[in-house]
Design a protein that fits this description.
Elements (H helix, E strand, L loop, with lengths): L10 H8 L5 E7 L6 H11 L34 H12 L4 E11 L9 E15 L3 E14 L2 E15 L31 H8 L4 E5 L5 E2 L14 E5 L3 E10 L11 E8 L4 E7 L11 E7 L8 E6 L8
Parallel strand pairs: 11-13
Antiparallel strand pairs: 1-3, 2-5, 3-4, 4-5, 6-7, 6-8, 9-10, 9-12, 10-11, 12-13
The structure holds zinc ion (ZN).
Zinc ion binds next to loops.
Length: about 325
């Protein structure tokens, strides 16, 4: 089985990959825990779902938890097939060393209840490519997991990943730390403007951060949506954010590297004083000095010629040592 590594877009590789369609990915998988009330409760609390269907003696598990009962956790499952390992190794050898989960689809045949013990098998349903995306060129690998309880089918979980060769901009990996010294060959993706958010971007063009307000129940909402998620009304106007907020949460991006961005950098979830939250960059503070609760102030920054200005938030370090 030792063929020379193929380039990520060679026809030979595509044929080799297609031969994996229909082969098993997981054989004889068994859920690590039975369907159980504590995990259901944690899930419902995390999602804010207070449906009575999920509590009490007749409780069922939320249908969308289907995949939860099959997950291997940090220690993984020993049931992954040799064929699937071979498929991933073939992609790695072709330079498709990065992976991103793109989407999943589920079908439910009957509700799961506390005490149910799930078993599952998974098959490689399709390997499609090469496709070139903003992340790089690679292959979409779709697996279909069939979940059973006592031999009876209860649902299907399709999971799609993109295994790709990262298209990193030359020189972007070790760019200088100073925000002005970067020479990134790639350009940032432009914001996607559609009929639901056009008013927001119109506001940004006037250096205003506009929040939608429901005319029926007065609830504020962000990001922009066609209707109110509190009362369902489609009537709204806007209020302008005053620009003050705090860091509600944040992550520091290290991987995967996206063209035109220069990791590591902090991505903040900013809570505006009006009460809604927005995801944006925190500037003026080193990425490793961003903290939850840090006060921030709205600014508009144009990162590249020909791109719109973007709302970002300047952090305020205690002692004022930000730069
Ligand atoms: Zn409303």
């Amino acid at each position: 089985m030792s063929q020379p590594p193929s380039h990520s877009s060679s026809p030979q590789l595509a044929a080799q990959l297609a031969a994996f369609e229909g082969r098993p990915a997981v054989v004889g998988g068994v859920g690590k825990d039975p369907v159980n009330e504590p995990m259901i409760r944690h899930w419902c609390e995390a999602l804010g779902d207070s449906s009575p269907a999920y509590v009490g003696p007749d409780a069922v598990a939320p249908a969308t938890m289907l995949q939860v009962w099959t997950m291997g956790g940090l220690s993984g499952h020993s049931s992954r097939s040799e064929a699937y390992e071979e498929l991933l190794a073939l992609l790695d050898d072709a330079g498709c060393t990065s992976v991103v989960a793109t989407d999943c689809e589920q079908e439910y045949l009957r509700p799961l209840r506390p005490g149910d013990r799930v078993a599952f098998d998974s098959v490689v349903e399709s390997v499609v490519g090469p496709k070139t995306t903003k992340l790089g060129t690679g292959y979409f690998v779709t697996t279909r997991m069939d979940v059973r309880v006592d031999g009876e089918p209860v649902g299907t979980h399709r999971f799609r990943i993109l295994k790709y060769a990262p298209s990193r901009a030359p020189g972007a990996s070790r760019a200088p730390e100073t925000p002005t010294g970067r020479e990134l060959a790639a350009t940032r993706p432009r914001p996607v403007v559609n009929r639901d958010n056009a008013g927001f971007w119109d506001g940004v063009g006037r250096r205003q951060l506009l929040i939608q307000r429901c005319l029926e129940c007065r609830a504020l909402r962000f990001p922009w949506l066609p209707g109110c998620n509190a009362c369902g009304s489609g009537d709204w106007d806007t209020v302008e954010a005053c620009g003050d907020g705090t860091v509600f949460s944040y992550v520091v991006m290290h991987h995967p590297p996206f063209p035109a961005f220069d990791p590591p950098y902090a991505v903040g979830l900013i809570e505006l004083v009006e009460g809604v939250r927005i995801i944006s960059n925190v500037i003026g503070v080193p990425y490793d000095k961003v903290r939850i609760g840090m006060p921030v102030r709205l600014e508009f920054v144009r990162y590249e010629d020909g791109q719109p200005e973007l709302p970002v938030f300047r952090g305020d370090l205690p002692g004022g040592v930000g730069g």
